[in-house]
Structure prediction request, 155 residues.
Amino acid sequence: MLRTEEMNVRDDEDKKANGGKTATDDAKAGRVLLAAFSRPPQARAEDVNSSILIAAEKVAAYPGLKEAAQYFGPLTEVAKLQGFAVVNEPYEFLAGAKTVVRGEFQKDVGTRVLRQSTLVILVRGYAVSFTFLGGTEDEVEELIQGLSFVTTRAK
Prediction:
């Protein structure tokens, strides 16, 4: 189930309610590019609602940010505020033709464990994050396997 527009509309409404600004200024404004869930978030189930979230934030919002691994400083702070613990520190790996940085988190949710793996690249002045959520490592890995980058030649 895609919820991209709904998530961006909610962010826009938050801005309007705060006089046009959120807790972060416009330079930090990020945008959800894709939000996809295996089922509607309000649907109750025993297992974790696997999801994919792709977002972009301006690199300029983070002074001194030159490498994707540095983005994990603020990302980890946000994850910890949401109750996640770091499982694996950020590391580089190859996804198709692109080197990305990956960090992994998890959170106990009742009797279940919510696993999160976030991949980050810097491209054209943006930190682009790909966040995959699932109930097991295998679930998350399966979602990540669908991600690959290709290079194209300029004509």
Notes: The first strand starts at residue 30 and ends at 37. The longest helix spans residues 4-17. The domain at 49-145 is CATH 3.40.1000.10 (Protein Transport Mog1p; Chain A).
